[in-house]
Structure formats: structure tokens, C-alpha cells
Design brief:
By secondary structure, this protein is an alpha/beta fold. The protein has 18 helices and 20 strands.
Length: about 500
Amino acid sequence: MNHAAAAESLDLASLGGSLIDGGWRAAEERFPTLDPSTGAKLAEVALGRGPEVDAAVAAARAAFEGPWSQMGPGRRREALARLSELTAAAEKDLAQVEALDVGTPVGVARKLTVRAAAKSLSYYASWIDKLYGDVVPVATAQPILDFTLREPVGVVAAIVPWNTPLLFVGSKLGPALACGNTVVVKPSEIAPLSILRWSALCAGAGIPPGVVNVVPGDGETGRLLASHPGVDLVSFTGGSETGPRVAAAAAGKRIALELGGKSPALVFADADLDKAAMAVALGVFGLSGQACAASSRLLVEASVHDALLERIVEVARALAPGDPLDPATSLGPLASERQLRRVEGHVARARTDGARLVTGGERPGGELAGGWFFSPTVFDGVDPGAALAREEVFGPVLAVLSFRDEEEAVALANATSFGLAAGVFARDVSRVLGLARRLRAGTVWVNGYGQIPNQAPFGGVRGSGFGREGGREALETYTQVKNVLIEL
């Protein structure tokens, strides 16, 4: 596990500044970003504060009112398409940076984050010359032409989380840039390096200086950006504890929030149990459980409980954590020591609350002992009122509950403050269609889990936020409608 050599070969130490108006800017304060596999320092990064935020917003405003707005749809489409190509071409290096800074295995990072980002940029590039307005029918004695224009919002503050940073290059910057906005990105202080490395591609794609700016920093940096009077829209993805604070800081602005989840997977007796077991296990243990839509609650019909649990435990034990730089690894470490302690705390509390630990529940030893690794964990017999059934763990921990009939299953599934996603495994089409309507979630997967096509909207309800990323719906987030009425 020679991570130091890998970090040196990628020249991570050079990613220490903020990208503002096309150039790198140092800051008076700096903070370390650590390798979650070893705990070693990877680089020291600029800690953005008022001067950096002010400069980045000013650069974004100047670019919005200047070269970016003056580029016709065809040229902007070409630039975004080129940015997609450059992102795909840099797949190997970008995946390695995420493996070192986040702990995402390189194979997973290449497919799940880098390729997804490139595909999303390409998808939204194709929308640029298709953002039509409408003609409004007006019945009056005097001839009138009434029509609408769909216009960019302006300067977007994109505050992204640490679990899959490059994924949000596609889901946030893709539609924001396609609609003609400019962006200031605030990556997480836990994992800022992959977005900093990616941002250097913008100039080569023909994106004018100031269109994309990156200011790394902490929560205070995010507050300064969200509350900045020069920002028109705040797009935030992160924890449910931080979301309300971001919303308060952004008071008076347009805002889109994608927060946490405690997503249920409902498995009925007529389901394909092998398929359900694999989908649920990968849904909660993939990314080491650090996914907002993780299938962290398994609700299983009592008659197949034992058979399904046996299958899931078999998958869990086969998914051993390993070195994220190894292409054969499927599970890496948790992204930070703080997150590791959080997961350990949830596991300890679940034991106290009376849940039965079936597998996992501990840190692996050996060469992984120095990192923030945690084994896939399954608790059975979880009380519906227990913390493990209601609170987001954001780690590889599955809570298993049983139900007797469909009514109890729906009641258990909806007994949470969240509403991001849900899964249903059943062969009865009538049941599936009925459950899709009754489950309070922004996305319902049926006989599968976790797939999010570029063309599909994604977002939550209730405590999981509001607004949608992905698909045509994202374009509505990053545009505003102007009505024009002409008396003829």
C-alpha cells in the first residue's frame, strides 16, 4: 500500500490553492487533507475565507455578464462537450485522486464518479440549444404577442459533499453551465483534491476564466458563500444537520437541497431472493455505506426473513475492505476518522438497544489497521423505534426488520423523517404499482436498487430536501422564466 508514492506521482501537493478567474490563488490559512487508508497527510489546501469568496463570486459575476453570456448556444455546447471529453480522458488520474483523498476504490471511482461525470456533462451539453420558451395564448380584442424566455439564474454556489465529489461535477455543474450560469464550487474539506484537479481541465475545453471557480474550505467557507449577496442560487448536497444552516444562510436566494436518507428496501415473499440480496447488499455496503440513498433499512416479509438474511450475510462477508488503489478492491475505507467514530457509535448503540449483530461490527486488522476501514455490518431484529432504524449512519451498516403484510411494510417504510429513495422487490405488478405511489420517497426502485440514469430526476421529499438533479427537471432548477408581452 504505497500511497505516498502514488500521491507524489500525481503531484497532489500542487493542488493547494483556489481556482479563481482562471488562475490559482493562495490563501493565508491552509488545512491538511488526509489519506483515509493510512491517516497520512496528502496535501495542504487553501482555506477559503472572505477575500477568496469575494474574489470568486466577483469573477463568476463578470464572466456571467461578459464572455459566457456572449457565447452563442453552439459555442457553449462545444465547450461543454469538450469538457466531457477531457474528463473522460483524465479518468485514470482522477480516479486515483479520489481513491487517495476519499477512499473510493479506483475501479468504482472510474465507473461511478469519473465516467458518470463525463456522461452527465455530455448529456447536458446536448440540451444547450433546446431550451425553448413558449407562446402564451392571450384572448384580447387588441392583438398581443405573449411569450416566455428561459434564462440562466446567474451565479451559482455549488456546495458538494465528500463522498463522491466528481459525481457532482456532472449533476450540478453540467446543468448549471448548460443553462448559461457561472459557478463557484465549495468542495468538502474532507476531500477537496479531485475537484481541484478536475477544474484545471476547464481552460483546455474553452471555458472562459471565471465561469468555473473552486474555493476549498470548511463550514465557515460554505456559510460565507451561501450568504454572499452576489450569489443567485445555492445548490447544496450534504447532511441533514447542515442543510438547515445552509438554507438559513441563503435566505432570500433560490436554493436546492439534497440531504440525507434512511432508505428502505421492501422484500416480499414472491421476490427473487438472490437478486434482492445482492441489490440490497450492494446498495448499503457500496461506497462503504457513504451514499445518501443507501438501502440502510431492509424490511423483509417474515416468511422469507431467514432465507434472505442468509443470502445477504453471505454477500456481506465476501465484500471485504481493501486497498482502494488495488483494482480488485470493491470496498475502501470511510472517508474520515470522524465518520469512522460516528459509525462505531451507531454500532455500539445498536447493541445497547438490543439488536442482534449477525456479521461485521468491527474494524479489520492487518495492513488495514492504520486506516479508517470498517467491515460490512448486519443487525437483525432492529426495533422500529431504535436509532438504527431512524437515523442515517452513512456507513456500511444494515438494519433488518420484519413485516407481516403490506400495510405493516408501508407503515415501517414511511416511519422516518427522510424521503429520498426506496426499493421494492416483488413480482406482483399490482402490488408494485400501488407501493410506488404509497411510499414517501423521491425515487422508488423496483427489483433493483441505486441506478440513476442521466435522464432521470433525483431528489428527496420531507427531511431529504427539495429540488431535483438529473434529467430535464434539473434545467428548471438552474433557469428562470421571463414573460414578454408585446402589444401589436
